[in-house]
Amino acid sequence: MNKGAAAPLFICNQEGVRPMLKPINQMSWLEVDALDRSRLAYVLPVGSTEQHGRHLPVGTDDLILQTSLDGLEKHLKTENTFLRLPTLHYGNSFEHLDFPGTVTLRTATMLAFVEDLMMCMQRHQVKYLVIVNSHGGNAPVFHAMAQEWGQRFGIRVFNIDYFGSNFFQDAQPLLQTAINQDIHGGEIETAYLQYALPQTVKADFIRPENDVFVELKNYYYGWLTRDLAPGSGLLGGASRSTLETGEKLFRYVQDKLAGYFHAFDKELNDARK
Ligand SMILES: [Zn+2]
């Protein structure tokens, strides 16, 4: 027996009820079935399991993803229903494969997974998919497929990419490291986790002499982390991270995500006109 009454989950889109972002795995099939399909989108969070330097856990992308979506669930108000699917905890991480603890999927495996999901969505007449991706290496894989998936499955795909996009561009004033040099496990990810999940950060390894600053070449996408940061895996300014920056970044991510979801909300509304 639960202690006290749990807050009821919404089950319909009736006037005055404001659905939002909800975890699908807490709903019954009947509750899902009751939803107006023209007002429904699935949300697939995609992270990674890969090295993030000696000071951060291999689940860094995943932890940033979960904490940011958990935060968003608490305050996002939308007119349409966004159902959060269980997260895909693995991504395309070949660049980090030289470091133990990294588990990568092949691109073909990732695509097969999303296409199986789309087969199920098609069966249940769900027409919108939002991919919220927190690992830069996954971004080009999904971008390349969005038009083909639209044509083959009749599903409109919207993307949010924390990395491999301009998501953090407006956060530059919050940072001491140039965005294009804060590539992996640097100031952004370290500060964010120092604030959101401090117990996961190994402070002993955060030192200025461990920071590595490089710029990726825009003609060579086959780079490997071991060549750029041998023995560490850190690409960026981790030692510049502070708790204060982490708190600001957490709020920045919340605002940015809310902005995206409001845009998606409008897309669904406009499609019904
Ligand atoms: Zn990362």
Quick synopsis:
Helices cover 36% and strands 10% of the residues. The protein has 273 residues and is of the alpha/beta class.
Explained architecture:
The chain is α/β, with parallel strands linked by helices. It has a single domain, classed as Creatininase (Rossmann fold, 3-Layer(aba) Sandwich), CATH 3.40.50. Helices cover 36% and strands 10% of the residues. It contains seven helices and five strands. The protein has helices at residues 29-33, 60-75, 107-123, 139-153, 187-196, 225-228, 243-272; strands at 21-23, 40-46, 81-84, 128-133, 156-161. A five-stranded parallel sheet has the order 1-3-2-4-5, with helices on both faces. α2 links the parallel β2 and β3 (81-84). α5 (187-196) crosses α7. Residues 1-17 have low confidence and may be disordered. The chain binds zinc ion (ZN). InterPro entries: Creatininase-like_sf, Creatininase/forma_Hydrolase. Its cofactor is Zn(2+). It is an enzyme of class 3 (hydrolase).
Keywords:
5 strands, 273 residues, 36% helix, disordered N terminus, alpha/beta, Rossmann fold, binds zinc ion, 10% strand, five-stranded parallel sheet
